[in-house]
Write a sequence for this structure.
């Protein structure tokens, strides 16, 4: 069985409520580029790595990522 993947847009929804969809996608795309990852689809470990990287950001961006990590774990 193939590992389940999530798209950038699906991950952005986890952050979008707090940041807005456009900002969430921008933040995720930037984190993926810093990690050297494709921005099309992410496995669970990659998604968690991205959110962990973003969680270290100051302010609402980091706080939103910490909550998104919890939601991701519950819903994956």
């Amino acid at each position: 069985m193939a590992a389940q993947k999530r798209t950038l847009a699906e991950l952005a929804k986890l952050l979008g409520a707090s940041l807005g969809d456009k900002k969430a996608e921008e933040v995720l795309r930037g984190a993926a580029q810093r990690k050297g990852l494709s921005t099309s689809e992410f496995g669970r470990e990659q998604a968690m790595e991205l959110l962990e990287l973003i969680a270290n950001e100051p302010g609402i961006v980091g706080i939103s990522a910490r909550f998104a990590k919890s939601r991701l774990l519950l819903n994956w």
Q: What stands out?
A: The first strand starts at residue 6 and ends at 7.
